[in-house]
Amino acid sequence: AIEGLKPFVAIYSTFLQRGYDQVVHDVVTQKLPVRFILDRAGLVGNDGPTHHGSFDLAYLGCLPDLVIMAPSDELELLHMIATAYELESLPSAIRFPRGNALGLEAMREQLGYDISAMPAKGTALPIGRGRYVKRADASRSKRVALLSLGTRLAPAMQAARALEEDADFGGTLGVTVADARFMKPLDMQLLRELAAQHDVLITIEDGSVGGFGDHVLHVLALDGALDEGKLRVRPMVLPD
């Protein structure tokens, strides 16, 4: 990186733990644009508990100036690889899970993508910008926001539709679904809108305590969004 090359470090999330000192001293402290590509993020099935990538959001999130991305699907992964490639001023990390991708049909049906084929390569994203995937109906009297990081986005969309159709709510509940895309830096405009326009905010991630949800709570507290006690925030993380 010092010589002007573009290093991509492809490694299991759980194995990067063994190189943590090098991440801190040799990359982050010097703000070198090394790109960490972490697969096996989250739970890994039969690979077993030693290989679960449960902790990367927590152990990387505390490091300064490290851009952290988590794609919700294969199209977003393409875009984030392009983003990391073009980012020359800071180190970055992209974390994605073990297992199969959604596929075009699922992305169209579950996430509302209007695409007929995967592009040959991705397009760089604005650093620290999330996106709305579904907005709550403004006519609903009760409003909940689901803020997802990574591949929990499709299940969050399924949950949103199920909640809105639940007869127990009598058509009064509207659910917004947003994709954070970045854990660092967080999209403050998106967070402020979700906090101001909803009664409940639920963060969703496939990582341990100390990760995405905690960073969201931290910035909301510093921003004063919790001062009046009107917004209820609940983080969903892996159990201890």
UniProtKB/TrEMBL annotation:
Q: Which residue intervals define the domain Transketolase-like pyrimidine-binding in the entry? A: 1-104
GO terms, molecular function: 1-deoxy-D-xylulose-5-phosphate synthase activity; metal ion binding
Pfam families recorded for this chain?
Transket_pyr (PF02779), Transketolase_C (PF02780)
Is Magnesium one of the keywords?
yes
Which BP terms in the Gene Ontology apply to this protein?
terpenoid biosynthetic process; thiamine biosynthetic process
Q: In the Enzyme Commission scheme, what number(s) does this protein have?
A: 2.2.1.7
Kindly tell me the pathway this chain contributes to. Answer: Metabolic intermediate biosynthesis; 1-deoxy-D-xylulose 5-phosphate biosynthesis; 1-deoxy-D-xylulose 5-phosphate from D-glyceraldehyde 3-phosphate and pyruvate: step 1/1
Keyword list, A-Z:
Isoprene biosynthesis, Magnesium, Metal-binding, Thiamine biosynthesis, Thiamine pyrophosphate, Transferase
Record's superkingdom? Eukaryota
Q: Which cofactor does it need?
A: Mg(2+); thiamine diphosphate
Assembly with partners or alone: Homodimer.
PANTHER family documented for this protein:
1-D-DEOXYXYLULOSE 5-PHOSPHATE SYNTHASE-RELATED, 1-DEOXY-D-XYLULOSE-5-PHOSPHATE SYNTHASE, CHLOROPLASTIC
What family does the Swiss-Prot or TrEMBL record give for this protein? Belongs to the transketolase family. DXPS subfamily.
Name of the protein this chain belongs to: 1-deoxy-D-xylulose-5-phosphate synthase
Question: Species name for this entry?
Answer: Diacronema lutheri (Unicellular marine alga)
